[in-house]
C-alpha cells in the first residue's frame, strides 16, 4: 500500500507540475478540464497496472538461496519454507479512519445544507434549470441543476444577465460532477495535499469555462471585466460543493479573457497531453519480468512453461511469494480447495496441524504459496567438491537423508540430477544447508511435490 501511495503521489506531482508550468495559462479550457480529470484517473489507476517484459532468465551461481526447502524437512507434512515477521499493529490506521470519518461527515453536511435549502425554498423552473430564491443577500451560485439567487434581487430585477449566464454555464457543463468527484476522493485521500492542489486547479478552470461562455454570449469583454471588479467587495459564505463567483483568482481570470487559442495550438496541446499521460503511466506502472529461455552453463533451472497441469492451470497466476492477493487466493481456491496444508497450531505454535485449504482463514491463505515445479539441473564438479567443506556447508542431505561425513562420499557430479541450497545463520555463524538428489531421488521428490503443491510460509506473529 505504501508503494501504491508513493507512486500515486509521484504521478500527481508530475502531472500537476506540467499543468502549472505549461497548461494553466493557456486558453484551452475544455482540453484542460479533460487533462485534470485524466490526471485523477492516471494517479489512481496507473500504479495498479502491470506491464510484462520478457527478460532472459539470469544465471544464478550455486551459492544462491533456494526458494523452497525440500519436502523432507517436515516428514509427512507440507514444507515450511521460512519465517517472516508480520507487520506490527500501529495506530496509523485508526488515525486515517478518524480523518476519513471527519471528511465524510463534512461532505455529508455540505450536501445536507444544499438539500435543506432546496426543500425550504420552492424552486422555480428557469431556462431549463431550477431557480431557488434565497431570503439572504447572496451572489448567484449553482449545484447540479439548481441555481441559487437572492430573492430580493430577483424581485427587483437587479440580477445581471452576465452573472446568470456565468452560473448557467456551470450547470450546463456539469461542473458540479467534477467537484463531487474530487471532494469524494479527498474524503479518502485527505492526507495528500496534492489533491487539494488538483481541486483548486479544477475550480479555477471551471471559472475560465464559465467566463468563456459569458463572453461568447455577450461579446463585451471590457464590460464583463468591469462587472467582476464591482463584485469584489461582496463576501459570502457558501457550502463548499457549490459553483459560484470566486475572486481569489480574479486577476488571472481577467487576463485569460484577452487570450485566444488557435486550432494549431489546441491540436499540439492535445498531442502533448497524450504523451505526458503515457510517460506518467509508464513511470509508475509495475514492470513484471517474464522469464525467457536462456543458456545455462551450470545447469540451473531455466524458463518454465506457463501451463503445468493437464487441466491447463497457469501457475504464473498463483502466489509464489506471500502475502497472496485476493485474486490469487480465489484462483488457488478454484484448483486446490481440498488440498491439505500444514499450518501452525494456534494452541501450540511449535506444532503443526493439517487442514484443507478451503478451511483456512483468509489471513492464513495469504501465506500459502504454490512453488513452481522443479526441473533437473546439473551441478558443476567444482561446486560439488566445495560442499565437502563442513565449515561452510552443513548439513548435507542426499535423497532426503543427512550424510554425516560427506567428504568421504563417492558421489560424482554426473550422479546428481537436482540440488537446492538454503543459507542460515548470520555473520561468522552463517552456513548453507545442501540438498542433493540423484535421478531416482529426484523422481520421488517431484512426485511428493506434485501430490501436495501448496506450501505454508510460517509467520511469527498474527
UniProtKB/TrEMBL annotation:
Pfam families the UniProt entry points to: Peptidase_M56
Top-rank lineage group of the source organism: Bacteria
Annotated ranges, domain Peptidase M56: 164-256
InterPro entries membership: Beta-lactam_resp_regulator, Peptidase_M56
Transmembrane intervals: 6-22, 34-51, 91-108, 129-148, 179-198, 266-284
Disordered: annotated span: 289-320
Designated name of the protein: Peptidase M56 domain-containing protein
Amino acid at each position: 500500500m505504501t508503494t501504491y501511495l508513493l507512486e500515486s503521489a509521484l504521478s500527481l506531482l508530475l502531472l500537476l507540475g506540467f499543468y502549472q508550468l505549461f497548461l494553466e495559462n493557456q486558453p484551452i479550457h475544455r482540453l484542460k478540464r479533460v487533462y485534470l480529470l485524466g490526471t485523477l484517473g492516471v494517479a489512481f489507476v496507473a500504479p495498479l497496472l502491470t506491464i510484462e517484459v520478457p527478460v532472459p532468465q539470469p544465471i544464478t551461481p550455486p551459492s544462491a538461496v533456494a526458494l523452497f526447502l525440500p519436502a523432507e524437512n517436515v516428514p509427512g507434512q507440507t514444507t515450511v519454507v521460512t519465517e517472516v515477521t508480520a507487520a506490527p499493529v500501529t495506530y496509523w490506521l485508526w488515525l486515517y479512519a478518524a480523518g476519513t470519518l471527519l471528511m465524510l461527515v463534512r461532505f455529508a453536511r455540505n450536501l445536507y445544507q444544499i438539500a435543506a435549502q432546496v426543500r425550504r425554498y420552492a424552486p422555480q423552473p428557469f431556462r431549463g434549470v431550477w431557480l431557488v430564491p434565497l431570503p439572504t443577500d447572496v451572489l448567484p451560485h449553482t449545484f447540479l441543476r439548481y441555481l441559487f439567487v437572492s430573492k430580493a434581487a430577483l424581485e427587483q430585477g437587479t440580477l445581471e444577465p452576465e452573472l446568470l449566464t456565468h452560473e448557467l454555464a456551470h450547470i450546463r457543463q456539469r461542473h458540479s460532477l467534477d467537484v463531487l468527484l474530487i471532494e469524494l476522493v479527498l474524503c479518502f485521500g485527505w492526507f495528500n495535499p496534492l489533491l487539494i492542489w488538483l481541486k483548486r486547479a479544477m475550480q479555477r478552470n471551471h471559472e475560465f469555462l464559465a467566463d468563456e461562455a459569458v463572453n461568447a454570449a455577450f461579446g463585451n469583454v471590457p464590460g464583463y471585466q468591469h462587472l467582476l471588479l464591482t463584485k469584489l467587495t461582496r463576501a459570502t459564505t457558501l457550502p463548499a460543493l457549490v459553483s459560484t463567483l470566486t475572486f481569489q483568482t480574479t486577476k488571472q481570470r481577467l487576463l485569460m479573457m484577452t487570450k485566444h487559442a488557435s486550432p494549431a495550438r489546441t491540436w499540439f496541446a492535445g498531442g502533448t497531453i497524450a504523451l505526458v499521460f503515457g510517460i506518467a503511466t509508464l513511470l509508475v506502472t509495475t514492470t513484471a519480468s517474464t522469464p525467457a529461455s536462456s543458456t545455462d552453463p551450470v545447469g540451473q533451472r531455466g524458463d518454465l512453461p506457463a501451463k503445468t497441469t493437464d487441466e491447463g492451470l497457469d501457475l504464473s497466476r498463483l502466489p509464489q511469494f506471500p502475502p497472496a492477493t485476493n485474486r490469487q487466493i480465489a484462483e488457488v481456491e478454484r484448483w486446490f480447495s481440498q488440498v491439505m496444508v500444514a499450518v501452525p497450531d494456534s494452541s501450540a505454535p511449535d506444532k503443526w496441524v493439517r487442514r484443507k485449504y478451503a478451511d483456512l482463514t483468509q489471513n492464513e491463505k495469504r501465506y500459502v504459496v504454490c512453488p513452481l515445479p522443479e526441473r533437473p539441473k546439473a551441478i558443476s564438479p567444482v561446486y560439488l567438491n566445495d560442499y565437502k567443506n563442513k565449515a561452510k556447508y552443513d548439513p548435507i542431505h542426499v535423497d532426503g537423508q543427512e550424510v554425516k561425513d560427506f567428504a568421504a562420499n563417492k558421489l560424482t557430479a554426473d550422479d546428481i540430477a537436482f540440488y537446492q541450497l538454503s543459507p542460515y545463520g548470520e555473520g561468522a555463524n552463517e552456513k548453507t544447508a545442501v540438498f542433493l538428489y540423484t535421478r531416482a531421488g529426484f523422481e520421488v521428490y517431484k512426485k511428493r511435490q506434485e501430490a501436495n503443491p501448496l506450501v505454508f510460509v510460517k509467520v511469527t506473529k498474527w
